[in-house]
Amino acid sequence: MRTAGLKAALTALLLFxxxxxxxxxxxxxxxxxxxxxYPPMSFMQDGVARGIDVEILQRAAQLEDFAYELVPLEFxxxxxxxxxxxxxxxxxxxxxxxxxxxxxDFSEVYMVSTLSAVVRCSQLDRxxxxxxxxxxxxxxKTGTYASEFVEHDSRRLHVSLQYYSSTEECAQAVAQGxxxxxxxxxxxxxxxxQSADPPQLCLTSVHLAPISGYGFAVAKGENQELLLKFNxxxxxxxxDGSLERIFxxxxxxxxxxxxxxxxx
Length: 264
Prior knowledge:
Belongs to the bacterial solute-binding protein 3 family. This protein has helices at 4-21, 52-64, 75-83, 98-101, 145-157, 167-175, 186-195, 224-240, 242-250; strands spanning 29-35, 37-38, 42-45, 48-50, 67-73, 89-95, 104-106, 111-113, 115-120, 137-141, 160-164, 181-185, 201-207, 212-219. By secondary structure, the chain is of the alpha/beta class. Helix 2 crosses helix 8 (224-240).
């Protein structure tokens, strides 16, 4: 497991590299936060940020000619740092919800998702319907849309919640029998299952929440020009096929939708 010191060193190295590469002639450099551990959306690999969110942002910056520093963070720090002014924007698989829209302005949807339940493959036959989750224990990542959704419905579902700081820790809790299932965004859950050989954890057919959409975010009323640039770039990426190519690079066999099918 990475130490806090190593995380800080990698972050500093990434910020330095991004700044050095993206600051021609003293133009504004936007500080944009992302989740440092959320594959395939955003993650660190050999000290370099990779993933769908990362590549969409890179492409948007190329198309609209803006400079930025990518700031990898634990997810539960992204929104607080954005609304407090420590970040200019966030590109972190943020589901657009009324609660979040009250404190942030979002781009158009760049990817749709839903919440999926993941269980041990040996237990898959026991989780076919929503009622099968009643009275069970769920592992959720702190501060996420999944945690907000289940917290809201936990009494109705009679689900006990266990909080972890990463999706990997949630997966370990389920694999070790500490929790009955984990709740995660569908693209991430599907990629988790695909990456294991043989898979120890399996997606259930039960979707726990309505379809939602990911958006690029800025603090309420702030950095509206950047938001406009991202939306313009998003339209271009949709039209030239680069958005779909980024999806397929990381989600080869997972159905995903771009902004034309999605509604916030």
